[in-house]
Predict the structure of chitin deacetylase.
Amino acid sequence: MLGISGTATTLLLLILGATVRADEPTTEEQMAANLGMSKFLVHFSRFACPESPSTGDKAECVAYGYQPVTDAFAKNEFPPIWVPVAGVSNDTEGYQKFLSINGSVPNIAPKGVNGVPTPNLAYDAAKDPDCWWTNTQCVTPKHDGVKADIADVPEPKTLGYGFDDGPYCGHNEFYNFLTSKGQKATMFYIGSNVVDGPLQAQRAVKDGHELCVHTWAHPSMTALTNEQVFGELWYTIKAIKLVTGVTPTCWRPPRGDADDRVRFIAQSLGLDTIMWKYDSFDWEQGTNGVTPADVQNNYNKLINDAKSGVLNSRGAILLTHELSNYTMQTAVDNYPKLVEAFDYIVPVGVAYNKTNPYAETSVTQPSFAQFAAAHGGPPAPSGSASSSPKSASGSPPAPSASGVKLDNSNSTKANNHSGAVTVRLQLPATILAFVGLAMTFAV
Ligand SMILES: [Zn+2]
């Protein structure tokens, strides 16, 4: 359903963007490799990605202006996109907040510079003093006062369903699919993508998905200073709030790169850290020798574990991506198999009875019991979600997203671009590039 049209289509893309990062490979760079594109192009704008799901969705990927974002960039309220945040010293509110927590941050040295990990860093993996996930997959902190990660869900035969790296410009057909199934998920959004695709980000909240932070520029978080870690999260929270009106309370580190220092800074901003124990490696397809069959095998591992009883005491979280036509199509293809294998497929927060997924109470999501009752599966085991790291307070409100105020006036723009290209003006002039690129699709 997400195949590229067979009709030859010429698409003129105006590519605007930021300076090119010189850090380690990211999923975006992997996507570039998948597509045979240069890193340069992808880092100039995700909207340059030609792998939109369909002819209609290609139109969604034409850049457009959105006034609140334009105004915020004009006032220098955000750092350059796709560049690791340098700091927050020019942001009065952010800097005060940072100073208020910095003295309590566990004393752990950054494991790299400016988001680039130090090669062959000496680290005692046996002791794992920092609970460094990248090295040991540690999710139980070693430092006092640091909240444990969420890496699975407490409900049996339940899948915590989510997608990283969005909002993807051409995701409407995928989101339509999820909506057609009544399926909600946890979406881990990159701040740079949120300001590039504000209408796409709004759709996630309108559709009732749970929005979490996935950093501003997708760096390796343990390779940043305290202030940079803070900034990556701070500006992504701020972007999501500006565009959708809600303030996330969860995040996922790119590549899982967190340690107790990073976790502490995140929790100081009110963010739960959400990891995973099953990885589809969908982002890697086409690179490093990873084939579609390999990715399917990874999905099958989860599906078989659910069917064979491995997940009968606790459910699972699977890492997948809203990154390309391939990753979304693979999610669509596997959805019926997941439905068959699991009793419930829910946003991660639902499995933890997080009925208030945002700082604002205007948007709620069901408790697990409410979800189970509404979906007619086996009765939820009584009290089985009591291990919730953040229990719901009081009687849970009825599931509703009606309280959120979204800008619907432009929503059709994302769904139905006229094809006219709108020059985006919100980026700082010093990093603004203007490139016209004619791309011919003759699939
Ligand atoms: Zn990611």
Remarks:
- The two ends are 15 Å apart (CA to CA).
